[in-house]
Amino acid sequence: MKKVLVIQAHPDPESYCQALGESYVRGIKTHSEVKVLYIRNLDFNPNLKFGYRKRTDLEPDLLKAWEDVKWADHITIIHPLWWGGLPAMAKGFFDRLFLPGFAFQKHEKTNIKWQKLLRGKTGRIIVTMDQPPLYYLLYYWSPSIRAVKKLTFEFTGVKPVKVTAIGPIRLSKDSFRAKWLKKVENLGKRDS
Questions:
Q1: pLDDT tens digits for range 146-174
Q2: For a 10 Å CB count at each end of the chain, is N or C smaller?
């Protein structure tokens, strides 16, 4: 049975991202084991105070989150697009948790090679935005999606990573949102 970790990165429990996450989990539960990690409920300092120069001890919630990451065969993150990127706590979550020795390991003699310690896992990004996804791609080149997909997930070995971009959410009709809830539930079935 596949093990799926869903990372809910929206800080508002009444958000559309929350509803999308619940739909995705409904789809997964038909064939897989699932855990949901709510970044908003974790107690940790999102600031990587010393960079990689000096290790800051991980808080208990981050240690538990790391066990969930190691447990998973597939990792899905659900987040809104804010100022072209992730919500601050989600960015801090990756900064603090996907560390050298945990998610990757740099080689001592070169800066262009590293070990991908999360190899063998697959991923999905579900992102909501207030613009059409094609506009975000063509005008801005999808910086947040590329950062999470290429420079976080694939950098650490999570591959392949599929992307589902949903928008525009602002001013969207109930029928648009309901259609996407069903689509995301079906994604959950496919990812399980």
A1: 999 999 999 999 999 999 999 999 999 99
A2: N
Task: For residues 160 and 150, give the distance between their C-alpha atoms in angstroms, rounded to a whole number.
Answer: 10
Report the candidate in 125, 45, 42, 48 with the shortest Cα–Cα distance to residue 85: 125
Kind of pairing, strands 161-166 and 122-128? parallel
Was domain 3-191 assigned CATH 3.40.50.720?
A: no
Token code pair at residue 176: 């648009």
In angstroms, the CA 143 to CA 155 distance is: 15
List alpha helices for the chain, DSSP H.
16-28, 60-71, 88-97, 133-140, 143-148, 174-191
Confidence (pTM):
0.95
What residue segments make up the domains of the chain, in order of their start? 3-191
**Partners of 85 in the β-ladder:** 82
Residues in the chain: 192
- Residue in 165, 14, 6, 160 with CA at minimum distance from that of residue 80: 165
Q: Tell whether the model's pLDDT for residue 110 goes beyond 80.
A: no
